[in-house]
Protein backbone atom coordinates (compact mmCIF):
# COMPACT_ATOMS: atom_id res chain seq x y z
CA UNK A 1 0.00 0.00 0.00
CA UNK A 2 2.88 2.34 0.83
CA UNK A 3 4.46 1.66 -2.57
CA UNK A 4 1.16 2.48 -4.27
CA UNK A 5 0.94 5.76 -2.34
CA UNK A 6 4.52 6.69 -3.33
CA UNK A 7 3.77 5.90 -6.98
CA UNK A 8 0.65 8.08 -6.80
CA UNK A 9 2.61 10.97 -5.29
CA UNK A 10 5.30 10.61 -7.98
CA UNK A 11 2.62 10.63 -10.69
CA UNK A 12 1.03 13.73 -9.13
CA UNK A 13 4.38 15.52 -9.16
CA UNK A 14 5.20 14.41 -12.71
CA UNK A 15 1.81 15.66 -13.89
CA UNK A 16 2.41 19.09 -12.33
CA UNK A 17 5.95 19.32 -13.72
CA UNK A 18 4.84 18.41 -17.25
CA UNK A 19 2.06 21.02 -17.20
CA UNK A 20 4.48 23.69 -15.95
CA UNK A 21 7.17 22.75 -18.49
CA UNK A 22 4.73 22.76 -21.41
CA UNK A 23 3.35 26.15 -20.33
CA UNK A 24 6.78 27.70 -19.76
CA UNK A 25 8.15 26.37 -23.05
CA UNK A 26 5.15 27.68 -25.02
CA UNK A 27 5.46 31.09 -23.35
CA UNK A 28 9.18 31.36 -24.11
CA UNK A 29 8.73 30.24 -27.72
CA UNK A 30 5.91 32.72 -28.28
CA UNK A 31 8.04 35.50 -26.78
CA UNK A 32 10.97 34.57 -29.04
CA UNK A 33 8.72 34.43 -32.11
CA UNK A 34 7.24 37.86 -31.38
CA UNK A 35 10.72 39.32 -30.81
CA UNK A 36 11.82 37.74 -34.08
CA UNK A 37 8.83 39.13 -36.02
CA UNK A 38 9.22 42.64 -34.69
CA UNK A 39 13.00 42.56 -34.44
CA UNK A 40 13.52 44.38 -37.74
CA UNK A 41 12.27 47.56 -36.06
CA UNK A 42 14.97 47.32 -33.36
CA UNK A 43 18.47 47.02 -34.89
CA UNK A 44 20.14 45.16 -32.01
CA UNK A 45 17.32 42.57 -31.83
CA UNK A 46 17.44 42.11 -35.59
CA UNK A 47 21.21 41.58 -35.40
CA UNK A 48 20.63 38.73 -32.92
CA UNK A 49 17.65 37.09 -34.63
CA UNK A 50 17.94 37.61 -38.39
CA UNK A 51 19.66 34.25 -39.00
CA UNK A 52 17.17 32.24 -36.92
CA UNK A 53 14.36 30.34 -38.62
CA UNK A 54 11.21 30.65 -36.49
CA UNK A 55 8.65 29.22 -38.91
CA UNK A 56 8.18 26.23 -36.61
CA UNK A 57 7.30 28.27 -33.49
CA UNK A 58 3.53 28.52 -33.96
CA UNK A 59 3.17 24.83 -34.73
CA UNK A 60 5.21 23.77 -31.70
CA UNK A 61 3.23 26.09 -29.42
CA UNK A 62 -0.03 24.56 -30.62
CA UNK A 63 1.28 21.08 -29.84
CA UNK A 64 2.55 22.17 -26.42
CA UNK A 65 -0.85 23.65 -25.56
CA UNK A 66 -2.58 20.44 -26.66
CA UNK A 67 -0.37 18.37 -24.36
CA UNK A 68 -0.80 20.90 -21.55
CA UNK A 69 -4.60 20.83 -21.92
CA UNK A 70 -4.78 17.02 -21.86
CA UNK A 71 -2.64 16.73 -18.73
CA UNK A 72 -4.33 19.81 -17.24
CA UNK A 73 -7.71 18.09 -17.57
CA UNK A 74 -6.42 15.15 -15.53
CA UNK A 75 -5.04 17.60 -12.97
CA UNK A 76 -8.46 19.24 -12.85
CA UNK A 77 -10.16 15.96 -12.00
CA UNK A 78 -7.62 15.22 -9.28
CA UNK A 79 -7.89 18.62 -7.62
CA UNK A 80 -11.60 19.27 -8.14
CA UNK A 81 -11.25 22.40 -10.29
CA UNK A 82 -13.45 21.25 -13.17
CA UNK A 83 -16.70 23.09 -13.56
CA UNK A 84 -19.63 20.85 -12.73
CA UNK A 85 -23.39 21.12 -12.85
CA UNK A 86 -24.47 20.01 -9.40
CA UNK A 87 -27.91 21.60 -9.05
CA UNK A 88 -29.71 18.25 -8.80
CA UNK A 89 -26.94 16.59 -6.78
CA UNK A 90 -27.07 19.31 -4.12
CA UNK A 91 -30.86 19.09 -3.75
CA UNK A 92 -31.26 15.38 -3.04
CA UNK A 93 -30.69 13.37 0.11
CA UNK A 94 -27.33 11.87 1.10
CA UNK A 95 -27.92 8.39 -0.37
CA UNK A 96 -29.13 9.54 -3.81
CA UNK A 97 -26.37 12.16 -3.82
CA UNK A 98 -23.73 9.52 -3.18
CA UNK A 99 -25.14 7.34 -5.99
CA UNK A 100 -25.30 10.28 -8.43
CA UNK A 101 -21.75 11.39 -7.67
CA UNK A 102 -20.38 7.85 -8.06
CA UNK A 103 -22.33 7.43 -11.30
CA UNK A 104 -20.90 10.70 -12.63
CA UNK A 105 -17.33 9.75 -11.69
CA UNK A 106 -17.61 6.26 -13.17
CA UNK A 107 -19.24 7.65 -16.33
CA UNK A 108 -16.29 10.06 -16.63
CA UNK A 109 -13.87 7.16 -16.19
CA UNK A 110 -15.71 5.11 -18.83
CA UNK A 111 -15.77 7.99 -21.32
CA UNK A 112 -12.09 8.82 -20.90
CA UNK A 113 -11.18 5.11 -21.13
CA UNK A 114 -13.01 4.93 -24.47
CA UNK A 115 -11.25 8.09 -25.70
CA UNK A 116 -7.88 6.70 -24.56
CA UNK A 117 -8.52 3.39 -26.35
CA UNK A 118 -9.64 5.03 -29.57
CA UNK A 119 -6.76 7.49 -29.28
CA UNK A 120 -4.29 4.62 -28.96
CA UNK A 121 -5.74 3.00 -32.07
CA UNK A 122 -5.52 6.33 -33.92
CA UNK A 123 -1.88 6.84 -32.86
CA UNK A 124 -1.03 3.36 -34.18
CA UNK A 125 -2.70 4.18 -37.52
CA UNK A 126 -0.87 7.49 -37.85
CA UNK A 127 2.42 5.78 -36.96
CA UNK A 128 1.74 3.21 -39.68
CA UNK A 129 1.20 5.95 -42.30
CA UNK A 130 4.37 7.84 -41.37
CA UNK A 131 2.59 11.22 -41.35
CA UNK A 132 4.77 14.18 -40.32
CA UNK A 133 3.92 17.73 -39.24
CA UNK A 134 4.20 20.53 -41.83
CA UNK A 135 6.82 22.80 -40.24
CA UNK A 136 8.66 20.70 -37.68
CA UNK A 137 8.49 17.56 -39.80
CA UNK A 138 8.15 15.53 -36.64
CA UNK A 139 6.15 12.29 -36.61
CA UNK A 140 2.50 13.17 -35.98
CA UNK A 141 1.99 10.10 -33.82
CA UNK A 142 4.05 11.88 -31.15
CA UNK A 143 1.65 14.83 -31.24
CA UNK A 144 -1.43 12.59 -31.17
CA UNK A 145 0.02 10.54 -28.31
CA UNK A 146 -1.36 13.28 -26.05
CA UNK A 147 -4.85 11.83 -26.59
CA UNK A 148 -4.35 8.31 -25.19
CA UNK A 149 -1.88 9.41 -22.51
CA UNK A 150 -3.90 12.39 -21.30
CA UNK A 151 -7.24 10.57 -21.47
CA UNK A 152 -5.77 7.50 -19.79
CA UNK A 153 -4.43 9.66 -16.97
CA UNK A 154 -7.80 11.40 -16.72
CA UNK A 155 -9.51 7.99 -16.47
CA UNK A 156 -7.13 7.03 -13.66
CA UNK A 157 -7.93 10.29 -11.87
CA UNK A 158 -11.69 9.66 -12.16
CA UNK A 159 -11.18 6.19 -10.68
CA UNK A 160 -9.00 7.57 -7.86
CA UNK A 161 -11.59 10.22 -6.97
CA UNK A 162 -14.39 7.62 -7.15
CA UNK A 163 -12.46 5.25 -4.88
CA UNK A 164 -11.75 7.98 -2.33
CA UNK A 165 -15.35 9.22 -2.45
CA UNK A 166 -16.67 5.67 -2.07
CA UNK A 167 -14.55 5.13 1.05
CA UNK A 168 -14.72 8.56 2.70
CA UNK A 169 -17.57 10.48 1.06
CA UNK A 170 -15.16 13.34 0.36
CA UNK A 171 -14.61 14.91 -3.06
CA UNK A 172 -11.57 17.01 -3.92
CA UNK A 173 -12.49 20.65 -3.63
CA UNK A 174 -10.47 23.56 -4.87
CA UNK A 175 -11.00 26.76 -2.99
CA UNK A 176 -10.25 29.89 -4.96
CA UNK A 177 -7.46 31.98 -3.52
CA UNK A 178 -8.24 35.45 -2.27
CA UNK A 179 -6.06 38.51 -2.23
CA UNK A 180 -6.82 40.65 0.77
CA UNK A 181 -8.89 43.64 -0.31
CA UNK A 182 -8.87 42.72 -3.99
CA UNK A 183 -12.64 42.37 -4.32
CA UNK A 184 -13.71 45.03 -1.86
CA UNK A 185 -13.65 48.80 -1.83
CA UNK A 186 -11.41 50.52 0.70
CA UNK A 187 -13.05 50.56 4.13
CA UNK A 188 -15.47 47.70 3.36
CA UNK A 189 -13.14 44.73 3.84
CA UNK A 190 -14.58 43.91 7.26
CA UNK A 191 -18.12 43.70 5.89
CA UNK A 192 -17.24 41.38 3.04
CA UNK A 193 -17.22 37.85 4.36
CA UNK A 194 -18.18 34.52 2.84
CA UNK A 195 -21.37 34.94 0.86
CA UNK A 196 -21.14 38.73 0.84
CA UNK A 197 -21.65 40.41 -2.50
CA UNK A 198 -18.66 41.82 -4.27
Query: How many E-type strands?
Result: 0
Largest sheet: none
Please tell me the overall pLDDT.
Answer: 86
Cα-based radius of gyration, to the nearest Å: 23 Å
Give the count of structural domains: 1
- Report low-confidence residues grouped into runs of 5 or more: 188-198
What is the molecular shape?
A: elongated
Please bin the fraction of helical residues.
55-70%
Euclidean distance between termini CA atoms:
46 Å
Count of helices? Answer: 6
> In terms of structural class, how would the helical and strand content be classed?
mainly alpha
Order of helices and strands: HHHHHH
* β-sheet strand percentage: under 5%
Features:
single chain, 198 residues, mainly alpha, disordered C terminus
Write up this protein.
It is a single chain. The chain starts with a helix and ends in a 30-residue tail after the last helix. The chain has helices spanning 2-38, 43-49, 57-79, 94-129, 140-144, 146-168. The relative contact order is 0.10. Mean pLDDT is 86; it is low at 188-198. The chain has 198 residues and is an all-alpha fold. It has one domain (2-168). The longest helix is centred in the first third of the chain and has 37 residues, at 2-38.
In short:
The protein has 198 residues and is mainly α.
Summarize the helices and strands and which ones pair or pack:
Blueprint: H1 2-38, H2 43-49, H3 57-79, H4 94-129, H5 140-144, H6 146-168
Helix pairs in contact: 1-3, 3-6, 4-6
